[in-house]
Structure formats: structure tokens, C-alpha cells
Specification:
This protein is an alpha+beta fold. It is built from twelve helices and seven strands. Helix 6 crosses helix 8.
Length: 220
């Protein structure tokens, strides 16, 4: 890519990328990678010298910053599903981030943005599959099915603080929907604090053994 150097004396944070032929996200990432220095002129502006130097290296900069901007969880998971031709469940991006494989690079509307460069260079299919299995998110009814308990039993587990939601999303009519992580459900299913055979054997309409669990106090 060839970009002609401009004759301005200084460049602002929008002028610089625009005249250099960079998208704003490319410009921001290039700064984060140290390919373009921070402002060197008062008022958070860049000198013509810095601008012209960047323009002279523009092909190298474009190659280094990659082609994918930082994206939200849905787009990150869609990209991974397409790239590896596998099913990638909701919650996978957050799980990869939790495991240190997918850095968070900011947020949009209180939702994390995941590093597009890390996505583009990701090579380990097995890590994605494991993250999809353990990070998968379930709504309350589906989570209760995973544990093979009644929804009322599930509510007792939440009330007692033995299980907490991983995320909250907006549902229909602006309601808040709590989502529960597969790994947390699996961990609880292995817990010896619960007499699972007794819970599973309790007939419908009968008092659940979980009803006697103490309610977790707000301060605990």
C-alpha cells in the first residue's frame, strides 16, 4: 500500500489515521504495539516527522496490526467457529480470556472487546473446543436440566450461594437473564456437600432436601 505524505505541520488523533490510510482501530493497535509512538507535540498531536515516518512504514504497520478489529464475544465466537469448522458455544470467548488465551482490549456498552489480533493468530483448535465445553452458558431451566434437578431445586442452590451466574444479558421486554457456566455446574455436580442421590430421587410435589439449605447472607 502506498500513502502519500501530507504537508500538515501536526496531526490530531483523527487526522493521523485518516491521512495515513489507517482505520482508527488499526491506528490504536499500532500505537499499542509500539509501531507508532504517542503524541510528540503539545495538545496531544503528532509532528509531521512522526507522521511521515509512519507513512514510510505503512505496509509493515498494516501487516503487523492484522485484519480483524477488537470484537465482542458473539463475533469472536463466530470467527472461531468458521475458522476451525466446529461448534463454538456462547461463553467460549470469555472462557478463553479467563484462561489467558484471548486478551480483553476494552469494552463497548459495558461488554468486553476481545483482541482481534489474538483471534487472527490463534492456532490451537483443542483450546477452543475445551473452552467451548467448559465455558458454555445456560439459562436457568437449561442449567437445571444439566444438573438433573427441578427448577425449584436449582433456585435453592442459587439461594444458598452454591451457584452463581456467570453473566447477565438482556432478555425480552428488557428483562435480565442470568446465565450459568458449564464448568460451574460440573463442579457443583461433583460436590459432596449435596446428597445428589436423595435430590434426584425426590418425587415431584415433595419437599426437596435442598429446601433446608441456609440462605446465603448478603455480606458473605
Amino acid at each position: 500500500m502506498t500513502t502519500t505524505a501530507s504537508a500538515l505541520k501536526t496531526y490530531g488523533p483523527l487526522q493521523f489515521p485518516d491521512r495515513a490510510g489507517l482505520a482508527l482501530w488499526q491506528f490504536t493497535r499500532a500505537q499499542r504495539l509500539g509501531l507508532i509512538p504517542g503524541p510528540d507535540v503539545a495538545g496531544d498531536r503528532w509532528s509531521a516527522m512522526v507522521f511521515n515516518d509512519a507513512v514510510a512504514r505503512i505496509d509493515t504497520i498494516l501487516k503487523a496490526v492484522g485484519t480483524i478489529p477488537d470484537v465482542g464475544a458473539t463475533r469472536a465466537e463466530e470467527y472461531l467457529a468458521d475458522r476451525f469448522s466446529i461448534t463454538v458455544h456462547s461463553g467460549t470467548a470469555a472462557e478463553l480470556a479467563r484462561r489467558g488465551h484471548l486478551p480483553v482490549r476494552g469494552e463497548f456498552r459495558d461488554r468486553p472487546l476481545y483482541c482481534g489480533l489474538a483471534l487472527e493468530t490463534f492456532r490451537d483448535r483443542r483450546k477452543v473446543e475445551r473452552a467451548s465445553d467448559t465455558g458454555r452458558l445456560h439459562m436457568r431451566d437449561a442449567a437445571a436440566e444439566v444438573l438433573r434437578v427441578r427448577v425449584s431445586d436449582f433456585d435453592h442452590l442459587v439461594r444458598a450461594g452454591l451457584l452463581t451466574h456467570s453473566e447477565i444479558v438482556e432478555g425480552r421486554h428488557h428483562t435480565q437473564v442470568r446465565l450459568y457456566r458449564q464448568a460451574d455446574l460440573d463442579r457443583l455436580a461433583r460436590s459432596r456437600r449435596i446428597d445428589w442421590p436423595a435430590v434426584h430421587a425426590t418425587p415431584r410435589g415433595h419437599r426437596s432436601p435442598l429446601a433446608s439449605l441456609p440462605t446465603k447472607s448478603a455480606g458473605r
